[in-house]
Amino acid sequence: MEVVIVPDAKAGGELVAEAMVRLLRRKPDALLGVATGSTPLPVYEALAARVRSGAVDVSEARIAQLDEYVGLPVDHPESYRSVLRREVLDPLGLGADAFLGPDGSDEDVVGACASYEKALAAAGGVDFQLLGIGTDGHIGFNEPCSSLSSRTRIKTLTEQTRADNARFFDGDVEQVPHHVITQGVGTILEARHVVLLATGASKAEAVAASVEGPLAAVCPASALQLHPHATVVVDEAAASKLAYAGYFRYSFAHKPDWQGI
């Protein structure tokens, strides 16, 4: 895997946004896979700033969702579709026709998962998938011991995850859904370029296990070792447990086009 160590979260956001810009200049209708959470926000802010400045035209771009709550109406303010509309689609000036995502409100959840897999394939596949990582090494909602060949499917949230997410539901854990739809590890690995962004010391052990540890289902993000074009962008704190951090700093400092990731 390519590993790029940046000074801080803002620098990471700028770097990843620039990689997206370069892709969109080559392929204006690229399908960008996006994630929710606080980690990717600097990416979306930096990309929107480039759109406002006229540095890139995203009018033909498409956006694909990584995961979604089950049982929430699509217009619920905390559905991930609504979150991505506020954080990605609206700032980029894109409408609903540019968006692909699973329908978590469908009574046939299994069917909704299969439909999303078909939609991604029909769209030509994801060109650039942005990921965060959990402290336990999960990507999407693929928790430890998820199959590394898994496809889009329904997953049960742990009570800890529901408690953590209660802050988005007025602090009421009873409002947090019990299930989610998530792209599987195997689905994620089909993206042409996968970029994992991690910031903060709390992610350091998971980053080290993913990059330098053995390929193992107990750390789902380690599956990215199998990908032909996977890039890990980390700040100094998230890189603090990497045994080969010095090598990564040297190699990318001397790579002529390292900012292209």
Architecture overview:
- It is a single chain.
- By secondary structure, this protein is α/β, with parallel strands linked by helices.
- It has one domain (about 1-260): Rossmann fold, CATH 3.40.50.
- The protein has helices at about 10-25, 40-55, 80-90, 110-120, 160-165, 185-190, 205-210, 245-255; strands at about 1-5, 30-35, 60-65, 65-70, 100, 130, 155, 180, 195-200, 230-235.
- The protein has a seven-stranded parallel beta sheet, with helices on both faces.
- The mean pLDDT is about 95.
Features:
261 residues; alpha/beta; Rossmann fold; seven-stranded parallel sheet; three-stranded antiparallel sheet; globular
Topology:
Layout: E1 2-6, H1 9-26, E2 31-34, H2 41-53, E3 62-65, E4 67-69, H3 80-92, E5 99-100, H4 109-122, E6 128-131, E7 153-156, H5 159-165, E8 179-182, H6 185-188, E9 193-198, H7 204-212, E10 230-235, H8 245-253
Parallel strand pairs: 1-10, 2-3, 2-6, 3-5, 6-9, 9-10
Antiparallel strand pairs: 4-8, 7-8
Helix pairs in contact: 1-2, 2-3
Pathway: Amino-sugar metabolism; N-acetylneuraminate degradation; D-fructose 6-phosphate from N-acetylneuraminate: step 5/5
Protein name: Glucosamine-6-phosphate deaminase
Active site: 67, 136, 138, 143
